[in-house]
Amino acid sequence: MAISKEAYKEIEDVVGPENISDDPSIKDAYRSQYLTVVLPGNTEEVAAVVKLFNKHKIPFQVQSTGWSFYPPEYDFIFVDMRRMNRIIEINEKNMYAVVEPYVIVAELQAELFKRGLTCNMKGSGANTTALAMSGHGHMGLSTGTGDRNDLATEWVTDEGEIIRLGTVGASGEWFCGDGPGPSLRGVIRIGGVMTKQSTKIYHWGGPTKYALEGNSPRYTLPEIPANMMVRYYSFPTVEKLIEAELKIGESEIAFELMGFCPSMVSSNITTNNEEDFATLERFTKEVQGPGFMVIIIGNFPGDFEYKKMVLEQIIKETKGKSLKAVEDHNAEATLLFQCTRVTGSIRETFRAGGMFSSMMVQGQRYDLHVEWLEQAAVWKRELIKKGLIIADDGQQFGWGEEQGHLGHTEIFCRYNPYDADSFKAVHDWMDKVAKLALTGHYSVPVNSALPIEEIGSQACNYHIWLGKIKQAFDPNLVGARTGFSYVGADTAGAHTLVYPPKPPAKQP
Ligand SMILES: Cc1cc2nc3c(=O)[nH]c(=O)nc-3n(C[C@H](O)[C@H](O)[C@H](O)COP(=O)(O)OP(=O)(O)OC[C@H]3O[C@@H](n4cnc5c(N)ncnc54)[C@H](O)[C@@H]3O)c2cc1C
Questions:
Q1: Which residues contact 391 (CB under 8 A, 6 or more apart)?
Q2: Which of 170, 192, 238, 321 is deepest in the core (most CB within 10 A)?
Q3: What pLDDT is attached to residue 355?
Q4: Residue 260 Cβ < 6 Å to ligand 1
Q5: Is residue 506 very low, low, confident or very high in pLDDT (cuts 50, 70, 90)?
Q6: Are residues 195 and 311 in the same domain?
Q7: Ligand 1 mean position, distance from CA 234 (Å)
Q8: Ligand 1 centroid to 487 CA: how many Å?
């Protein structure tokens, strides 16, 4: 595609000739033949180019780190934020860090570890943007979900206006995302460009740096750092698992509780498919039912001993059983650094047995979500029996975030996307499970293929309200939102294919 020469020149005047391109080889690298790529270097440049997109009615989409970016199938401008890659501030006293969109979490966390601090990290991991955004992950138990962490934010609207939300707008300080007046923290998820954001930071009791040895993909830690421990427990029933999770939450002893099923543990600690299949088979025989992985970090030896004792007592009361393979040094070490630095998501997602496909619900009723999850598992096991889902232990995957106050549950499976029968069966299963979430009033299914109207009709018609907000903030409908976008998701975590603008008339 080509945007008009006039528009190209005006945008080039803002960012400089080296920061705009419609060279086919560059476009190819961005997975689309349609776009022109623009790389603004600061907030003012972002605002200026967005104003030009409005002037010329060219739709645009922004990418931070591109882990869930899907280029729209029509002409648009692609705004790549990689030049905005600075950590602006780490405020140890008031416990926040301010970042630009292309700071990845690995960089921020490495800086924070040196100060005895850490930040929330989505399960996708260390390579994704450090903007808090929405999302969920390993540290949800102690740091909450992504959207609980975003504080003051600098945001360029779809019309090109720079807005500073929360305290940064009122006092220039970054400690709070709300006020004065109504908060826009939900609204920013439907459009515009976040150019800076403050995210909460937390105490870290682990080492300032892991002393890793070995080479990729087989790194290890010669010694487990002091006062740290990883265990995987399985339970006789799902009720016992929930009881254990809630007790761990109430006692606030754990740094991390991840609702891994055995196949996720196995894909984390193995480095090739054969090893993964064999390990999973061993795990499946050993576990007694659903389970989770837990990481304990003591601040000093006495604290560590106390936390371990409480954990032991909870596991005893709930009849949990420790997976022996995780007590092995190498497995424990791998899980420890991979799950606190969050570097295993690719292995968890694209593992032996095919692609990972998931859909999730999130909210205050973890008990209900688990009921939904169990029904999904019953249906999934039928597909496993028929050989349509492979290398899957038949379990599901969920956990209580925020010390058990917020449930996060995901259905997932591994399947072969190149096998037409498997592909169809898995997608039918996902639709059926998404419909169950709605009709059973369990929660709003995220990442489902159901039409947004069907989801909205069961959720206060939120899509109509979102549409009105989008129209008010983006009258020229230039700000695209396509793809599975946590950033673009509304705060209820609902359907995310929200409001791509209508393809405009062809450019002259
Ligand atoms: C293997 C894998 C595993 C994953 N596991 C998890 C997981 O466990 N938990 C989880 O929560 N997520 C997971 N994800 C999804 C992942 O969190 C998101 O893809 C990622 O956080 C999005 O951030 P990004 O910067 O890469 O977004 P991008 O891909 O760059 O963009 C995503 C969306 O946000 C918009 N956007 C991007 N930057 C901005 C900005 N600065 N301002 C406004 N809008 C913007 C884009 O237009 C797009 O619509 C996983 C993804 C992959 C590929």
A1: 263, 276, 277, 280, 351, 352, 353, 354, 414
A2: 192
A3: 62
A4: no
A5: very low
A6: no
A7: 31
A8: 7
Report whether residue 62 contacts ligand 1, using a CB cutoff of 6 Å: yes
**Which is it for the CA torsion 49, 50, 52, 58, positive or negative?**
positive
Query: Is residue 227 left, alpha or beta, with left meaning phi > 0 and alpha meaning psi from -120 to 50?
Result: left
Q: Which residues pair with 104 in a beta bridge?
A: 129
Domain edge (last residue) among 387, 411, 439 = 439
Q: Are 71 and 59 in contact (CB under 8 A)?
A: no
Q: How far apart are CA 443 and CA 378, in angstroms?
A: 19
- Which range has highest mean pLDDT (227-231, 243-247, 430-434, 503-507)? 227-231
Q: Name which residue leads in pLDDT, 110 or 462.
A: 110
- Average pLDDT of the segment spanning 171-187: 87
What separation in Å is there between the alpha carbon of 135 and the centre of ligand 1? 8
- Which protein residue's CA is at the shortest distance from atom 50 of ligand 1? 124
Cα–chain center distance at 85:
19
* Whether residue 390 sits in one domain with residue 432: yes
| 499 in contact with ligand 1, CB cutoff 6 A | no
pLDDT for residue 71: 63
Q: Which of 100, 486, 495 gets mutated to test ligand 1 (max ligand atoms within 8 A of its CB)?
A: 486
Cα–ligand 1 centroid distance for 317 (angstroms): 39
Q: CB atoms < 10 A from the CB of 239, how many? A: 13
- Cα(22) to ligand 1 centroid in Å equals 24
Q: Three-state DSSP class for 413?
A: strand
Q: How many domains, in total, are found in the chain?
A: 3
Q: Where are the beta strands (DSSP E) in 81-209?
A: 87-91, 96-99, 117-119, 150-156, 162-165, 193-203
Structure tokens at 423: 């592909």
pLDDT reported for residue 486 = 35
Ligand 1 touching residue 120 (CB < 6 A): no
CATH number at residue 309: 3.30.70.3450
Decide: pTM greater than 0.70.
yes
Domain end (from 402, 420, 439): 439
349 CA closest ligand 1 atom index:
1
Tokens of 325: 């393979």
**CA nearest ligand 1 atom 38, residue:** 64
Domain that holds residue 390: 354-439
